[in-house]
Amino acid sequence: MQPIRFVLLWHMHQPDYRNYDTGEFTLPWVYLHAIKDYTDMAAHFESHPAMRGVVNFVPVLLDQIEDYAVQFATGEIRDPLLRLLATPDLDQVSAQDRLRVFDSCFRSNHVTMMQPYPAYKRLYDIHETLRGYGESDLDYLSAQYLADLLVWYHLAWTGESVRRSHEGVVRLMQQGGNFSSTDRRELFDLIGILVRGLIPRYRALAESGQIELSTTPHSHPLAPLLIDFSSARDSLPHESLPSEPAYPGGRERVALHLASAIESHARRFGGRPEGVWPAEGAISAPFLEILAEQGCRWSASGETVLANSLRHAHAGQPLPERDRYLYRPYRLEGAAGGVTCFFRDERLSDMIGFEYAKWFGRDAAEHLVRSLEEIGRNALPGEQPVVSVILDGENAWEYYPYNGYYFLNDLYEMLEHHPSIRTTTYRDYLDSAAPAETAILPVLTAGSWVYGTFSTWIGDHDKNRAWDLLCAAKRGYDEAVRSGRLSAEEILEAERQLVSCESSDWFWWLGDYNPPHVVSSFDQLFRDNLINLYGLLRLPVPENVFEPIGRGGGAPESGGTMRRAS
What we know:
Blueprint: E1 4-12, H1 29-47, E2 53-57, H2 59-74, H3 80-86, H4 95-104, H5 110-113, H6 118-133, H7 143-156, H8 160-163, H9 167-175, H10 181-207, E3 211-215, H11 223-227, H12 250-269, E4 275-276, H13 285-293, E5 298-302, H14 303-313, E6 330-332, E7 340-344, H15 346-355, H16 361-378, E8 386-392, H17 405-416, E9 421-423, H18 426-432, E10 439-441, H19 461-483, H20 488-501, H21 505-509, H22 516-536
Parallel strand pairs: 1-2, 1-8, 1-9, 2-3, 4-5, 5-7, 6-10
Antiparallel strand pairs: 6-7
């Protein structure tokens, strides 16, 4: 068995849920993932100091974490669900807020986050029974019911590391119900402590050398498409494109998102990031050129992107076995050659994302380690494979018992002590690797970590319509800036709003294969962002911006938050 260098990259991201007009958070996912997943992932590294890895934070997520920290510090809570948790008298809340509690507090994977807690499951059964008679019958549910539901929902979203270390959480879970306003306030205060401590915890892990922190262009834009819509046809030659020929000034916008991300990273973590995980692992040659221009050392994408590129470079020749090409870094010929590219093992990444949740934690950890050992056994003499496993650092754990605690704990423990598998980071790998280990890639076929294409964000009728709406708004922005009618402060406000409009997430969720309620939420969020942008530009809002883009209708795996590589 040849020695393995193993890079595990956890990608942390949530889209911008803030309404820039009101300052309110429209959805609570940032603080909920903060107290469950971002907290637990830090705790696993802290508990296993010999474990190395890469953690990628998207700046728009960090912006929102800091926003919540300010809310807790000032007491001016702008998240409606969090505000309700701390409301002293729930008898006085509005009908709209009552409905918000009912609509929000059952949104989770019931198998792992409700059924283990009989008191929480009972609250759900009561709600469903009354709703069966008619929505008006929910009026019978008391303020105490609301209090218990709010507490249980937040307890279910609390990380396993917190449950094992915080006596107050244990007490509330043992109490089971009849929670007082004091109980709710105690839980609210704990959430504040966890949120405020997140960025310092990850910075400390990075400063110790245990993890490398990387970044993504600021609001998670699908960079190759902003640069050139036709890049979608690299992997799908007949892909339908938006009616607009191109996103206006797309290359400059991507460069701006990247520069902003680098500044954000330096300010929060004390130094420039050396690597960039692009939004959705989406890369193209022009995008890599922008990374090179701004001094980025490494980037990464999906295995299928590499396979497509090699097929393109060696037309007519079959690909060798994946072990012969996947487990090494690459550089692209030409101006983008300053960036070293790594490509993730899609099978192993998808096993963590979708399959291991169904296994016993120890069995899953052992299977992953054995799979890495098999790569080492298949390596040629003298080879030192570098294996990349890259996936979301938050979305999978909702489907694991105990938020993936046993799987991650056992995996990290096995890797810490394995004689032939050395966990590392991309920065440390590049610092120690011999130049001969890097292969030259003659051509890059643009694509993402989902199917190796951009079909998740473009090509569908609804997605293309959203691009056309965004292009029209960007032209309005350009015209307003050129006109001179906006002050410098107004331009900055409009720019901040435009950055949010350019996120890839709005396009991810559009499509009839996604759940209707999620499509509706993100459709509305996207159009609200555009409406706010037109307002800041002092331009009339086009009528078509008020019309819903899509409706959804599917029930995808994992609720659509993740997709398999193929």
